[in-house]
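Hi Y.,

Following your request, here is the sequence exactly as I used it, all 119 residues.
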Amino acid sequence: MIRAMELLEATSKNGDKLSEIEGRVLFGEAMYEAGMTQVIKEMAANQVKSVRIKDTSEITEHWDKAKGIYDQLFQVLSEDQQTSLYEMFSNLESCIIYSEENGFVEGYFHGYKYVKELR
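Below is the corresponding structure, written out as tokens. Let me know if you'd prefer a different format.
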């Protein structure tokens, strides 16, 4: 296994002979980048837990409409059907939450990359 100092020495002494270890350098760089990406995404995932994303009027309007339809449908269904409807609605709610969190994390990460490239 090549250590970081060996790579540094090889790249500084043998700039034109880098091809023999270039694959290892690129692999190391890719692993570092992947690790940093994961760290930044975890930071964003922790941040999203403390942030309350405001509902827009459009979101509130659609939620109220969906909840109204749900309530009407729930009243005319059998008990088994009510359970199924409840499970479906709960799963859709979870999907929306995960989608919102994922969007926040991706936005956080891409914003970080953008700011990093400005320097």
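The CA atoms of residues 11 and 18 lie 6 Å apart.

Thanks again,
Q.
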